[in-house]
C-alpha cells in the first residue's frame, strides 16, 4: 500500500511532463509542440506551439522543416468579411520578454505535402531555425485537442 502511495505522485509527474513537453535553445523556450492527426490521403497537417523569448532582444523564426512533409509554411488565420482565410505569415518575430503562440484559429505551421498520415500517439521531429538562436529539433506530439 505504501509503495502505491509513493508511486502515485511520481506517475503524476511523468504524466504532467508528457503533457507539458518543452525545449530550449539560446534564450528561447518552445512549449508543447503538437499536431492533430490527419486522415489518409490528406496532404496537409498543422503544427502548434508556443515560443517564449527570455532574451533582451528579439529573435526571428525564419524557417522550419520536418522529414514528415515536403515543406513547412507559416500561416495566420484571419477573419475577413465574416470568412476565415489563411494568409502566409512570413518570418515570425518573437520580441524580447514576449511569447508568441501558434494555435488553432491564429498563427500556425502548415506541414505541406505530408509523406504519410499523422497518427494519434506518434511523435514527429520538427526543426525550427531562428535568426539568432539557431536550429533546434522539437518533437510534435500528434494528439486530439
In short:
The chain is mostly beta strands and 145 residues long. It is built from one helix and eleven strands.
Chain-wise SSE layout:
Blueprint: H1 2-19, E1 22-25, E2 28-35, E3 44-53, E4 59-65, E5 69-80, E6 83-88, E7 92-94, E8 98-102, E9 107-114, E10 123-130, E11 134-142
Parallel strand pairs: 2-11
Antiparallel strand pairs: 1-2, 2-3, 3-8, 3-9, 4-7, 4-10, 5-6, 5-9, 10-11
Structural class: mainly beta
Fourth-tier CATH superfamily name: PCu(A)C copper chaperone
| Low-confidence blocks of residues | 2-8, 10-19
Number of domains: 1
Level-2 CATH architecture: Sandwich
Reading off the top of the CATH hierarchy, the class is best stated as Mainly Beta
Report the average pLDDT across residues.
88
**Gyration radius, in Å:** 17 Å
- The CATH topology name reads Immunoglobulin-like
Biggest beta sheet summary: 11 strands, mixed
SS strand fraction = over 45%
Tell me the number of helical segments per DSSP (H or I, 4 or more residues long): 1
Beta-strand segment tally: 11
Order of helices and strands: HEEEEEEEEEEE
Query: How helix-rich are the residues, as a percent range?
Result: 10-25%
Features:
single chain; 145 residues; mainly beta; Immunoglobulin-like; 11-stranded mixed β-sheet; 1 helix; 12% helix; disordered N terminus
What do these coordinates show?
By secondary structure, the protein is mainly beta. It has a single domain, classed as PCu(A)C copper chaperone (Immunoglobulin-like). It is 12% helix and 55% strand. It has one helix at 2-19, and strands at 22-25, 28-35, 44-53, 59-65, 69-80, 83-88, 92-94, 98-102, 107-114, 123-130, 134-142. Strands 1, 2, 3, 4, 5, 6, 7, 8, 9, 10 and 11 form an eleven-stranded mixed β-sheet that branches. Residues 2-8 and 10-19 have low confidence and may be disordered.
Amino acid at each position: 500500500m505504501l509503495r502505491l502511495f509513493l508511486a502515485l505522485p511520481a506517475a503524476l509527474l511523468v504524466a504532467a511532463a508528457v503533457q507539458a513537453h518543452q525545449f530550449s535553445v539560446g534564450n528561447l523556450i518552445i512549449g508543447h509542440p503538437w499536431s492533430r492527426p490527419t486522415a489518409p490521403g490528406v496532404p496537409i497537417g498543422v503544427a502548434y506551439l508556443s515560443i517564449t523569448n527570455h532574451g533582451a532582444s528579439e529573435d526571428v523564426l525564419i524557417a522550419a522543416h520536418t522529414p514528415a512533409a515536403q515543406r513547412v509554411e507559416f500561416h495566420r488565420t484571419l477573419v475577413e468579411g465574416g470568412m476565415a482565410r489563411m494568409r502566409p505569415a512570413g518570418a515570425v518575430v518573437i520580441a524580447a520578454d514576449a511569447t508568441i503562440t501558434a494555435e488553432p484559429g491564429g498563427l500556425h505551421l502548415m506541414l505541406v505535402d505530408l509523406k504519410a498520415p499523422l497518427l494519434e500517439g506518434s511523435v514527429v521531429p520538427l526543426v525550427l531555425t531562428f535568426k539568432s538562436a539557431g536550429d533546434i529539433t522539437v518533437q510534435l506530439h500528434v494528439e486530439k485537442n
